Amino acid sequence: MNMRIAAVVLGASLTLAGSASANPISRDPAKAPAGTYVLDKRHASLIARVPHMGGFSRYTLRFDGLDGGFTYDPANWQATKVTFKVDPASADTGDAGFNRQIAGFLGAAANPVISFASTAITGGENGEGQLAGHLTFHGATRPVTLNVVFNGAGPGLLGVGTRMGFSGTAHIKRSDFGATAMSQWAGDDVDLAFELEFVRK
User: Fold this and answer.
1) Which residues pair with 85 in a beta bridge?
2) CB-based contact 82:70 (threshold 8 Å)
3) Scanning 43, 85, 102, 125, which has its CA 20 to 30 A from the CA of 108?
4) 169-182: string of b/e by CB count within 10 Å (b at 16+)?
C-alpha cells in the first residue's frame, strides 16, 4: 500500500512539475526558437458562427479536420509563410445528419480542402498582429486578413520539445466565395475563431 501511495505522489509531482515547466516563456516573436513547426491537432480548434434566419442566433459549428505549419526564423519572423488546411467535411454541429448536410452546403465533395496561405505579417507589438493571405474556399480564392495574438513560445509537457500558441479571429462573407447555399436560413457573414498550437519537428 505504501508503495502505491508513493507512486501516486510521484506521478502527481511529475505532472505538476510538467505543467509548471510547460508555460510559455516569451511572447516576443524575436525570441521564439527557429525551426519547422507543425500543427498539434489535439490542441487546435476552428469555430465558425453564422447568423441563423436573420439573426435569431449565431449558429456555431466546429471544424475538426485541421492541418498546417510554417518554418520560423526569429531574425526575420515577418517573412514567415503559414499554410493551413481545413476539411469542410469535418464540420461538427453535434448532429451527425446535419453534419452531412453542412458538408454538402460547403461543397465538400467538389472542393475537399479549404486552404489558407499567408502573404504578409504585420504588427507584433504585445504579441498582436495581422496575418494576410489568400483563402481558397468553395473553389474560389480571395484575400483574407486574420487578426492574430501570439500567446507565446516555450517548452512542451515535462519540458520536452518546443511549441508556439496562437489565438485569432477573421471575418468572411460566403457570397465572396460563391457559397450561397441555404441563404434563406443562414446569413452571409461568417465569423471565425481559432486556437492553435504548433510543435517544432
Assistant:
1) 67, 115
2) yes
3) 43
4) ebebebebbebebe
Query: In sequence order, which residues have a C-beta less than 8 Å from that of residue 17 and are 6 or more positions away?
Result: 158
Q: In whole angstroms, what is the distance from residue 58 CA to residue 61 CA?
A: 10
Take residue 109 and report the three cell numbers written for it.
Answer: 465533395
The pLDDT score that the predictor gives to residue 127 is: 86
Q: Is 138 exposed, middle or buried (0-12, 13-18, 19+ CB in 10 A)?
A: buried
The neighbour count for residue 131, using CB atoms within 10 Å, is 22
CATH code of 9's domain? 2.40.128.110
Name all contacts of 133-138 with Cβ < 8 Å and 24+ positions apart.
133/82, 135/172, 135/177, 137/88, 137/111, 137/172, 137/177, 137/179, 138/106, 138/107, 138/111, 138/174, 138/177, 138/178, 138/179
Cell numbers describing residue 106:
460547403
Domain that holds residue 123: 2-200
CA 117, chain centre distance (Å): 13
Measured CA to CA, the distance from residue 178 to residue 116 in angstroms comes to: 17
What does the pLDDT look like over 125-173, one tens digit per residue?
Answer: 788 999 999 999 999 999 999 999 999 999 988 888 999 999 999 999 9
What's 38's DSSP letter? Answer: E
Domains of the chain: total: 1
